[in-house]
């Protein structure tokens, strides 16, 4: 990057607008960027060779030498940029975090031989270098991701490229010998698993708890976290934690990604996302820790790795991924209401979207502030304040989500008790109603459910979660707009009204487009799966179920996933990617430079219905 613009008043930085990093010699800066890319790639490769194979391919001393050399390359890079910077004071302020990091590194290296008696000093020193190298590479990758997405090029295409890159990297890591316990993992199976994790779907062709080692499960967990929150959000969070400058273009890109109203709130929103994620997932893991049963057996028993299992399931539930470490998912815990309560709440909160969560927290905080002030001498300060209310988006999301959970649970309970499994109780109905729209966990055998029950779940998967969350589907707000549009036509109203607010025609058109495109993709994928799996004798209802689960990034399956052909797996992979990015996003990438028409034709009359 040739320069970084510092914007005053931005939540990312407080440096004046007229202060920016520029370099005297642009060719030298381009060379520095190129060297950074090469060194980062070499560092990544060294860690893969060192940690990914059961037998050492290259002598460890050689790898250590390469990593130490990379450490000095990163230091030299900072020196060259300092010399080449037009304003060196601004540059030093931009890389301020390097100084405490290097200071800690020096202290650790100096104290390694004096205070560490049980560990070799050389190992402590090389570990400190590893930490520094990892932070450097992560920093450069995150900053580059945010910069590319905000560079003015087609943002949706760049977002697709970022997701594809993450998927391919994840697939490569899952194919490393130390990532699996089975004989081998084929490329198509590794690609399927990486796509399912990155797109927070939960469909699996390998048993996550048995076929993958603890290292492989950790890779899957990281893919879920990165894919669930979004790559660009992680880049911005990392930049904000280091108090690095963020340009106006980058702030605008973050505003679009987070659906923020103003640029001044973007930093607050990103900070809230990061903080809320850490708190919610930590609380979820803490609550799950004491609930695991030793009834689950396997190479990676949950009882043996309680802490990891708690973190894994907490992240998987909050990101609406549906990955579990047991072959039977959560069927062992059908009667355990504690697990129901924790997992369900994590799924619901994660499916609401961060915008809705932020709005609820903001309103609660404001109510508490007003409550306290009214009982102090500052009572007059709040008498004339406008009361804070939930936004229209939040009202719709909460209302539709509650209706879908209750209605889905009632319908599932009625149909399953009458036509399916007689042991299907209200807890199963509630859990499957919650998880069917977003997550993909299951406490019953989906393949043994009645046809009516599968159809209800298919509809819930088609609807999905809420905008701004990691859930797929057409989204709850889209469903509400479609229904209220029909209701407005029935009542012969000129405008669509929701909660005493009029909805713009552009939003109505967008909702209709999303629904039509989503339906078309689902229909086309179902037809293709019917062709590729024609020799498997799968029931059409199960094929539709599988396609809806992949497109809605849900992850429930009637048992078809592991039996799919390679062509069928590729179709499911594409569906998961489309479902995570959104069909409308993909269409927008194809029509990015399309200019709106500057003319209109005379009105025509049609008979509809």
Secondary structure layout:
Blueprint: E1 4-5, E2 20-21, H1 26-51, H2 60-84, H3 88-94, H4 98-115, H5 121-149, H6 155-174, H7 187-198, H8 214-229, H9 231-241, H10 248-258, H11 266-289, H12 306-318, H13 337-352, H14 354-373, H15 380-383, H16 392-419, H17 426-436, H18 451-463, H19 476-490, E3 496-498, E4 501-503, H20 505-532, H21 540-551, H22 566-581, H23 583-590
Antiparallel strand pairs: 1-2, 3-4
Helix pairs in contact: 1-2, 2-5, 4-5, 5-9, 6-7, 6-8, 6-23, 7-8, 7-22, 9-11, 10-11, 11-12, 11-13, 12-13, 13-17, 14-16, 16-17, 16-18, 16-19, 18-21, 19-20, 20-21, 20-22, 21-22
Structural overview:
Among the domains are: 23-84 and 95-149; 346-371 and 387-590, no CATH class. The N and C termini lie far apart (57 Å). The protein has 23 helices and four strands. Helix 5 packs across helix 9 (231-241), helix 6 runs antiparallel to helix 8 and helix 12 crosses helix 13 (337-352). It has 609 residues and is mostly helical. It is globular. 63% of the residues lie in helices and 2% in strands.
Give a short overview.
The protein has 609 residues and is mainly alpha-helical. It contains 23 helices and four strands.
List keywords for this structure.
609 residues, two-stranded antiparallel sheet, mainly alpha, globular
């Amino acid at each position: 990057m040739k320069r970084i613009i510092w914007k005053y008043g931005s939540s990312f930085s407080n440096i004046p607008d007229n202060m920016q990093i520029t370099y005297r010699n642009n060719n030298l800066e381009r060379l520095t960027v190129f060297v950074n890319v090469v060194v980062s790639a070499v560092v990544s490769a060294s860690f893969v060779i060192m940690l990914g194979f059961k037998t050492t391919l290259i002598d460890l001393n050689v790898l250590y030498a390469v990593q130490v050399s990379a450490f000095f390359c990163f230091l030299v890079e900072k020196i060259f940029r300092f010399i080449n910077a037009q304003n060196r004071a601004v540059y030093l302020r931009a890389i301020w975090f390097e100084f405490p990091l290097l200071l800690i590194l020096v202290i650790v290296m100096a104290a390694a031989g004096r205070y560490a008696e049980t560990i070799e000093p050389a190992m402590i020193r090389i570990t400190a270098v590893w930490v520094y190298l990892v932070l450097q590479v992560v920093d450069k990758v995150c900053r580059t991701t945010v910069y590319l997405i905000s560079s003015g090029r087609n943002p949706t295409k760049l977002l697709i490229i970022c997701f594809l890159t993450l998927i391919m990297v994840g697939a490569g890591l899952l194919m490393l010998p130390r990532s699996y316990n089975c004989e081998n993992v084929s490329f198509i199976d590794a690609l399927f698993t990486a796509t399912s994790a990155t797109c927070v779907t939960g469909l699996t062709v390998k048993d996550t708890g048995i076929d993958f080692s603890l290292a492989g499960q950790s890779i899957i967990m990281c893919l879920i976290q990165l894919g669930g929150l979004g790559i660009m959000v992680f880049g911005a969070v990392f930049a904000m934690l280091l108090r690095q400058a963020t340009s106006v273009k980058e702030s605008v890109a973050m505003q679009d990604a987070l659906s923020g109203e103003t640029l001044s709130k973007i930093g607050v929103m990103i900070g809230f996302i990061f903080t809320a994620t850490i708190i919610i997932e930590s609380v979820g893991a803490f609550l799950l820790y004491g609930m695991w049963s030793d009834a689950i057996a396997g190479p990676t028993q949950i009882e043996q790795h309680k802490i990891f299992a708690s973190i894994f399931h907490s992240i998987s539930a909050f990101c609406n991924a549906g990955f579990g470490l047991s072959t039977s998912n959560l069927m062992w815990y059908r009667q355990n209401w504690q697990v129901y309560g924790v997992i369900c709440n994590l799924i619901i909160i994660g499916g609401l979207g961060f915008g809705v969560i932020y709005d609820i927290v903001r309103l609660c905080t404001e109510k508490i502030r007003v409550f306290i002030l009214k009982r102090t001498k500052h009572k007059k300060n709040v008498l004339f304040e406008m009361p804070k209310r939930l936004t229209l988006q939040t009202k719709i999301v909460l209302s539709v989500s509650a209706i879908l959970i209750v209605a889905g649970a009632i319908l599932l309970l009625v149909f399953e008790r009458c036509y399916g499994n007689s042991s299907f109780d209200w807890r199963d109905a509630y859990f499957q109603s919650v998880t069917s729209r977003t997550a993909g966990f299951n406490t019953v055998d989906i393949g043994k459910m009645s046809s009516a029950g599968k159809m209800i779940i298919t509809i819930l998967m088609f609807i999905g979660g809420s905008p701004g969350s990691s859930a797929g589907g057409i989204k709850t707000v889209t469903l509400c707009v479609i229904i209220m549009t029909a209701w407005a036509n029935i009542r012969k109203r000129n405008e669509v009204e929701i909660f005493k607010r009029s909805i713009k025609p552009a939003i109505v058109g967008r909702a209709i487009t999303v629904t039509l495109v989503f339906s078309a993709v689902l229909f086309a994928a179902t037809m293709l799966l019917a062709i590729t799996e024609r020799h498997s004798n799968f029931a059409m209802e199960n094929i539709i179920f599988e396609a809806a689960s992949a497109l809605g990034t849900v992850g429930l399956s009637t048992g078809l996933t592991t039996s799919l052909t390679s062509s069928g797996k590729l179709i499911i992979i594409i569906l998961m990617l489309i479902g995570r990015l959104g069909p409308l996003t993909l269409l927008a990438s194809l029509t990015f430079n399309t200019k709106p028409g500057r003319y209109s034709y005379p009105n025509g009359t049609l008979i509809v219905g």
